Amino acid sequence: MVTTTNLVSYWNLDESSTGAGAVTRNDSHGSNHLTDTNTTASATGKINDGADFETANNEVLSIDDATQSGLDVTGNLSISFWISYESLPASGVDRFFIGKFGGAGNRAYGVGIFNDAGVHKIEWLISSNGSTISSSLPVLSATPTLNQLYHYVIAYNTAGTTDFYVDNVALTQATGMHTSIFNNNQDFQIGGITGAATKHDGIIDEVGIWSRTLSSGDVSDLYNGGSGLAYPFTAATPPNRLTLLGVS
After folding, report:
1. What digits encode the pLDDT tens for the residues 77-129?
2. pLDDT for res 176
3. What is the per-residue DSSP string for 26-84?
4. Fewer CB within 10 Å, N or C, the chain?
5. Does 1 reside within a domain?
6. What is residue 143's three-state secondary structure?
7. Is residue 120 part of a domain?
8. What strands lie across the sheet with 188-190, from one edge to the other?
9. Residue 207 belongs to a domain
């Protein structure tokens, strides 16, 4: 069973919001509670509610660098989340989901989607010095279906490789990436990254950040046959075999 070992933060994003006012999104595991910018509404997610972002409104959930704790991950890093799309970026355009990434000199990590002439790719960016970007663009097996929730996992390690999973299926592994991540002073954001103009359009739910590389078994546990796995990742205890046989 996937564990909370080296789990930095986990946001279940179950807070109810009509989008008429800012609602803080609480970190269920740590202290990195997120401020709501431009009144992000809630909608049905994978497990209870999720945050429903509108790209036209530049909606993000964020915590500033001075307040955050542990999100300046410089080594092994994994990000797990559920996501749906209300619209997709136009050809040649990217939209980002999650990251701690600013302009030149202030870059760390960020994940999004890129429309490469109609081919949709996960966009994973890291920098080891704050300026030079090491990127990977694994191709999604199909154009995402609008309003359908997908489970994405990015699992980076300091050997310079990154594994990508969509609905528990591994995509092409990235190799030759930077072997560390820059410790920047940028806000951490869900719904976008500071260094990109375009934000996500759709639901994001059940976001976890680990300072370790999740295994394929961990990913399978989090996917949980498509049902998702609620924090703190405890599964029902199976009945004792003797109990099943009617033996006390």
Report:
1. 999 999 999 999 999 999 999 999 999 999 999 999 999 999 999 999 999 99
2. 98
3. P-SSSS-PBEEES--EEEE-SSSEEEEE-GGGT-EEEE-TTT-SS----SSEEEEEEE-
4. C
5. no
6. coil
7. yes
8. 35-37, 60-63, 188-190, 94-101, 107-116, 119-126, 134-136
9. yes
